[in-house]
């Protein structure tokens, strides 16, 4: 009897699964507009475009000529989304009336593998996480550890790997290199451990693979209806089985790292990574408030670290690969970056210019003063924000600055990707990669990022805590790569975004490298 009902449910799951795949994920016909279907509302259109949501949202904004639209659920359901890229709405939601727009229960269920970490928490639980993470990020010892470790990884792993590729004239996927780099940096920052995932042999790493798997799983939870992925989870089949497996691997590693760190600290071994800081703060915190972690709460640490790890790793990898692609496709921009680097190199190494030591790795501090490089990074993050969309829930009814009425329980989807592609926000040339838009006539940076229109790092109380770290990393990698190597992008590659929580290139970016003689 039990097995009969199980088979029945499995059959239903299978039918629905195939239906959604054919309507949504593999459906080639996409729509530039938002249609209302009898009984079903606008959900079928959403499903048909589920593999390219940021792009579709952008097309709908263009076709409607405004920065917000609603998606209605099936008749009799209360499901309704507001999708917006209106920058005054975004400022209102993320900053002015912040408390009225938590992430909410839907987000929390989809991201439940992250537990109570900062990315998934709201209200008091979020405040605790934010305070702890902020304490960790602003510590001067952590900042030093971060910049030393980044330089070390660039110098001792990234550049040797690229030199090896250049020497053997082999083809490499630059996106994979960026992901491996981001993984090594994030493991160092979070736990103070060196994984050497970027070494010449491109070794496999079960933790890195499990975290990538978890990303995929969370994406599927966005695409297919909640009841369906919950059924898959109940029966431990399909993507949900992969999620469970990935989580087991992640937990095994994370709990081992936490227990190892506790032992180190007991032995008096000091370190300044994020985990050490969290353990220290956890011990100092009061334990009689229910939302606060208790002294030996390893689950709390696991959740905190998993969020911080995810927040940094994928965003850095994504920011890097889109930047590199845009610059490599825009020879004028590449030339200007190289000119700045040469000037910096000759000002620092005047005496070495004749003999020219190769390869050369720049100091993060020196790179921070380069105007064109900074402008180019901002420009690529505008066009390809690593986190393309975000969602919020409405607590109390309110009219947003553009006149949209939102009601309790409604979901709001903010499309950061679309913000960067609206001509009424960035001008008619908004689709062009033009670092010059960030530089004024006196050659100084225009700080658009201080205005609400540059939303790539979020706004308000939940602004990204790793923004400075992100700029440091991207500049360090780009400078080392472009200054020391000539990069040839293989012809015939069709570059388009892969559907994911963070933006990546669907099939990677295959390149050949050659030693660059300056
Ligand atoms: C180019 C790189 C990056 C971009 C574009 C970026 C963007 C963002 C965005 C949009 C959010 C808001 C997410 C949300 O509300 O769910 C966020 C949050 C956050 N980011 Fe980043 N991020 C980047 C790199 C990093 C790095 C390297 C770290 C360091 C670990 C980091 C740490 C965080 C943290 C801790 C939060 C949570 C803030 C909160 O909820 O209070 N980010 N980031």
TrEMBL record:
Cofactor(s) demanded: heme
UniProt keyword terms in alphabetical order: Heme, Iron, Membrane, Metal-binding, Monooxygenase, Oxidoreductase, Transmembrane, Transmembrane helix
Matching PANTHER family: CYTOCHROME P450
Identification of the protein by name: Cytochrome P450
InterPro entries: Cyt_P450, Cyt_P450_CS, Cyt_P450_E_grp-I, Cyt_P450_sf
GO molecular function: heme binding; iron ion binding; monooxygenase activity; oxidoreductase activity, acting on paired donors, with incorporation or reduction of molecular oxygen
Source organism: Papaver atlanticum
Biological processes annotated in GO: isoquinoline alkaloid biosynthetic process; lipid metabolic process
Transmembrane segments: 6-26
Domain of life: Eukaryota
Organismal lineage: Eukaryota, Viridiplantae, Streptophyta, Embryophyta, Tracheophyta
Family membership: Belongs to the cytochrome P450 family.
Pfam families reported in the protein's UniProt record: p450
